[in-house]
Amino acid sequence: MNCLRSLDVIWAILFFFAFVQTSRSCWGPGSLQYGYTTSDYDLNVGSDLIVDCILESGILPNINVSVNSSYLIFQRDSNHQIFSSYTHQIDKLTSQLRIPNANVSDSGLYHCQIVFPDNSKHLVCSTKVFVGYPPKNVSNFKCISRNFDNLTCTWEIESSYIKTTYTLTVNLLSDDISMHCPEPNNDTFCQWTEDTNPPYFTMIRNLTFVINGNNSLGTIENIFKFDHFAIVIPN
Ligand SMILES: *[C@@H]1O[C@H](CO)[C@@H](O)[C@H](O)[C@H]1NC(C)=O
Ligand SMILES: *[C@@H]1O[C@H](CO)[C@@H](O)[C@H](O)[C@H]1NC(C)=O
Ligand SMILES: *[C@@H]1O[C@H](CO)[C@@H](O)[C@H](O)[C@H]1NC(C)=O
Ligand SMILES: *[C@@H]1O[C@H](CO)[C@@H](O)[C@H](O)[C@H]1NC(C)=O
Ligand SMILES: *[C@@H]1O[C@H](CO)[C@@H](O)[C@H](O)[C@H]1NC(C)=O
Ligand SMILES: *[C@@H]1O[C@H](CO)[C@@H](O)[C@H](O)[C@H]1NC(C)=O
Ligand SMILES: *[C@@H]1O[C@H](CO)[C@@H](O)[C@H](O)[C@H]1NC(C)=O
Ligand SMILES: *[C@@H]1O[C@H](CO)[C@@H](O)[C@H](O)[C@H]1NC(C)=O
């Protein structure tokens, strides 16, 4: 048992280092380092999707055969598509995948492989690219107070196809005093009651809600103003 446990720990450590290293330079235990590719990134729809693959050396370390960037191919993980017409040799050791005018369906994990003289393929490194949009404006923003006992705001969002977060705050009295959304909440829902932290602010007449949308391609701010009395549904 103990022996198994410690083996687990060793595997966990090895796995951790393999992960940390592969995410930087594709250098895991037991594998040879042929080269590396562009780091993972998010891309705007309509831009060119570019992945560089760079060989460490013009000599293959294990079999002592000289190679150059013409031995490199790009293949997409999901459908194994090979992009020969989009692959360009930049220099002796660098090959570049360039897909013009990318759209969301081009998102994926792109593998750079080296084809050995015996036609076997070996992974050099992989790059994950998500193609999407900056955050979109929210729509259908609604807030309802039930008898001043609780205040519930909901809104709709449109997918940006990349990881995006929306946060709601409400400005009280002035822009300088704002309250965040109590837990539990999510990207399209927020609720204040007397028991939440922060609690429901029943005394404020003019409500200004601010939604911030945020992802790696941009940010948005949407502002909604309400007369508090106008959104109360009495019991
Ligand atoms: C690699 O090949 C070159 C010439 O092809 C030779 O001079 C060299 O000794 C070889 N190195 C190894 C480690 O086999
Ligand atoms: C790359 O290797 C190929 C095949 O061995 C060779 O035909 C080509 O001239 C080489 N290119 C460069 C830039 O060395
Ligand atoms: C995205 O591009 C793929 C191929 O590059 C194409 O098949 C697809 O129709 C495009 N989708 C949109 C929404 O333009
Ligand atoms: C969001 O709305 C603002 C005005 O409220 C507008 O200027 C902006 O272009 C909109 N953004 C998007 C992505 O629709
Ligand atoms: C909100 O307040 C209304 C009216 O008092 C009550 O019926 C409802 O259960 C409350 N909802 C929550 C989630 O507290
Ligand atoms: C957000 O939370 C509310 C209340 O818990 C729930 O009704 C709604 O389905 C949730 N929305 C998402 C997208 O998870
Ligand atoms: C609330 O807004 C109205 C008009 O939008 C304004 O006349 C009033 O002075 C405001 N009240 C407070 C307390 O800010
Ligand atoms: C966007 O979100 C990231 C991560 O949550 C955060 O570090 C950054 O400050 C946010 N940017 C804006 C403009 O809110």
Automatic annotation (TrEMBL):
The keyword Transmembrane helix does not apply. This is Ig-like domain-containing protein. It comes from the Eukaryota. Residues 29-114 form the Ig-like domain. Keywords: Signal. InterPro entries: FN3_sf, Ig-like_dom, Ig-like_dom_sf, Ig-like_fold. Residues 1-22 form the signal peptide. It comes from Argiope bruennichi. The lineage of its organism: Eukaryota, Metazoa, Ecdysozoa, Arthropoda, Chelicerata.
